[in-house]
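Q&A log
Question type: sequence-to-structure
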Amino acid sequence: MSEFTKYEIARILGARALQLSMNAPILLKIDKKEIEEMNYDSIKIAEKELNEDVLPISVKRPMPERKQKPLKKQKREEKPQEEKEKKIDDKEIEEKEEEEEQEIKAEGEIMELATPEDEKEEVEKKPEV
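Response status: OK
Response body:
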């Protein structure tokens, strides 16, 4: 019984107790007097069966797979061409952002952005409820 962890023992006892509660045969020869002392508790009966090593239950534990592959060294070389491409990309992104900002400003002028003076007028116009 010491070969099982406490979690495995709990799982085994629970499974066997469920079997016993559904009228599975008891694997030990137990007197009626002893069963009455256990108060017909299926968990106690399952525990006694486990302690006597009569349960035909096995536990499969997952073990990590051992892979033995040689690790390859990865070479990382920075090419001057890649750096130039990065700079070009950055410049393009900045140009696009500036264009978007200009568009937003133009749209804002069309929509007439609110000024703090406009907001004060709206607050004064609202009637109190």
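Response note: The CA atoms of residues 29 and 49 lie 10 Å apart.
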